[in-house]
Prior knowledge:
Layout: H1 11-30, H2 48-68, H3 72-92, H4 99-118, H5 122-127, H6 160-174
Helix pairs in contact: 1-2, 1-4, 2-3, 3-4
Amino acid sequence: MSLKPRFSLDQAGLNLIRIVIGSYFMALSIGLVAGLDPAVIFAPLMPPLAADLLGATLMFLLSACLMAGVRLRLVALSLAIFVFSNSLTQNMMHVVPGSVSAFWRDLTLSAAVLLTYSGLSGPALRRASVLGYRARLQRACDKDVNPRRITLATRGKRPIQQEIRRALTGARLMRRPGKEADEPEILNIFANL
């Protein structure tokens, strides 16, 4: 007997994938890996040092909230929009030969961030939060409960033969007596042997 293999990605697996994606963006924000510059979108609006500080802080906070599962839908959408807009500004304003592949990489990572919550239902989305998951009582009983003992009434046992006889007599009473002419004649094929 062979069983079909079943593949199931449970909540722990989804949390690990989300933590890996969030740690990559966190490493980008503090400068451990090369890639997207989080300050590009703020550079035209403020001095370079302030833009770098604001962009890195915003990406770090969004990544940390994504990893912790805090307001997962809102944070994932905000991080995806932030990464997409920074990548679009950085790579598509002045197109150079390698910029399309960097934009494509950032777009794929933005889609991965959005996929971290898309397959989750309401209860699974609450369980996805690493920090804030608490079991909640769905329905509470408002009235007092007084336990009582239930005893079955003792019933005398009858022998099985008496039950069979009663069933047979009940079956005979159910049959209507008919005329002999109404019953078909039974041919005994073994009578001449």
